[in-house]
Each structure stands twice: as structure tokens, then as C-alpha cells.
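request received
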Amino acid sequence: MADAPRPRKRILSGMRPTGRLHLGNLVGALWNWRMLQDEYDCFFMIADYHALMSEYEKPAGIRDNCREVLIDFIACGLDPGRSVIFRQSDVPEHAELHLILSCYTPISWLERNPTYKEQMEQLTSKDIHNYSFLGYPVLQTADIVIYRANLVPVGEDQLPHLELAREVVRRFNHLMGREALVEPQAKLTASPRLLGLDRRKMSKSYGNQIDIADPPDVIRKKVMSMITDPLRIRVADPGHPEDCNVCQYYKVFDPSAHDDVADKCRNSKWGCTDCKRHLAEVLSTLLAEPRAKRAELEAHPEQLHAILAEGARKAQAAAREVLNDVKALTGLGKM
Ligand code: ATP
Ligand code: MG
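response:
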């Protein structure tokens, strides 16, 4: 007798709708997510409650950004036929479970979170001294466990959040006397940390990004402004491709050309301007398909609405089961 097929492991991942997605999001997350769809049962979320935690002073952009992020998701190969693609606030069960789990989360666990401490120091342009921001990882825990997700693809900055999620789950299960919630595992993405035009990490909030939606003329302008090897002033000066952000981009976006590009740089066979002009073409070609797909989707907003409606329906059905179970265990709801 043939073995019964094993159920596929489940993945949840999300992005905050704080802007359009960029090349860093593409190489660090979307390319990986697209592949994961072949092997896992995937839930991809547009985390608008999480966006509100830092954008609450000017929340008007969140809705537009949800639309932009959804378009980027689909344009880059996330498939609503295979994956559940949804907006967090369409499934208010997340908020309800967040409240319940917050009862099981000691404040000291949140205050010692290194990612929180770092953001408090770094994110000076926004006031994040609010109640919700401290509890950011508790909502994230709810996001994960409400789908019984086994794996969460994350970058290193997210590891403390995942560890906290696991601790909350263990505490809850221990107090309830059974394995009510699934303890998730981090699935570290071996993603390159793409640097932006100014050599800091490419980020939506630093204004140093190339967006997936950028047309060729914008890409060209941005690439021409990239900082190259600071020691190479004239074409005749030998370059140091290993220290040059532009050459690093070749490694990621046109790996078969990288060695040749590095040789031309090191041996002064071309100048930085030639190198950038060529990179702009590589990127424009790479983004041509998502750009065309974006245009198609923009012309059919009804398709976007349908994707979100279907995603919300599927996500909510799964979320309700876990929430009902948790409510029964915690004395809430039905008598
Ligand atoms: P924000 O500035 O609002 O924090 P962001 O550009 O840092 O936005 P996030 O929404 O925080 O983007 O990250 C979404 C996903 O993209 C995460 O999985 C993150 O690891 C990945 N990511 C973000 N920036 C980069 C980058 N420069 N290189 C590689 N991966 C990245
Ligand atoms: Mg970020």
C-alpha cells in the first residue's frame, strides 16, 4: 500500500505596507517566498496592523501601500491560486488572539528584546514610544500561531521575535496543560543584505532604494547616483570591485557577468560610468516582467479586490479554528 501523503508544512510570512517594495525585499524575501510555494503551504500577509504601530500619526498611506504591496507580491510571482495572500486587518481574529496572548507575555520579555532596543535608538524620525510597539512581537506571535505555522522565513533581525514567540507558546501550552499551540521554527533566509544607493541597508524608510515598480529612466538615474569604489577617481586607476556596491549588484543580479565586470574594473578596461550604465540595463531587463505584470494588475483593480477577498476568506476559516480553541481553553466566549 502506498504511503499516505504527508501534509505539507505550513509557512507564514509578511511585509509591512510602509511603501512600495524594493530590490532588497525582492532578493531578501520575495524570490525566496516564490520558491517556497512549491514545497510548503504558504500564507503571505500584508501586515497593516503592524504598519499602524509606527505610522499611526500619518496613517493615510497605509491603505494605498497595501495595494502597492499586493501588486508587488503578485507581480513577483506569489500565486493566489496556491498561496493564501491576505491583509492582516481583514482577519480581526489576529487582534483578538493578540490580546489573549498578551496576558501570557511578561513585560520583561518584551523590554529585553534587542530588536526593540535597536529600533528605539535608530528610528528617530517616528515616535514609537507607544504601547503597541512594545507588543509588536506578541501580535507577530498571534499572526504565526493562528495558522499553526511550523516555519517562519526570517532575516536575522527577526530571530529575537521568533524566540519570543516560541517562549510565549511554551508558556501558554504549559499553563493550559496541553500542546494547544504549535511552536514555530525560524527558517533563516540565506539572503544577501542588499545595500542601497548610499551603501546603507536598502530600506523603504531610508529613501535609498530602487523600487520594483521603477521605470527604466528612474532606474538609470538612481544607478548613476550610486557610490562606487571611493579610491577609483580616474578610469586609469585600478578599481577594487570587492569594495564597490555596483560590482556587488552584479553578483546578485547578473552573476555570470560578475567576474568579467570585476576584471574590467580591476584592470581599468572600463570606467565606473560604463559599469553603471550596463547595470541599469541589467536591472531594467530584470524588472521588465514584474513591471508589465504591475501595469496589468493596476488596470484591473477588481482582480486585486478578488484576491484579497478570497485570501481573507481562507485565512479567516483557518484562524477561527485556532481562536475558538484558545477561547475555549481560556474561559472566553460560549457558556
Ligand atoms: P522598513 O524601512 O519599513 O523597515 P524595509 O525596507 O526594511 O522596510 P521590511 O518590510 O522591514 O522592509 O522587510 C520585509 C522583508 O524584506 C524582510 O524579510 C527583510 O528581511 C527583507 N529585506 C528588507 N530590506 C532588505 C535588504 N536591504 N536586503 C535584503 N533583504 C531585505
Ligand atoms: Mg525593515
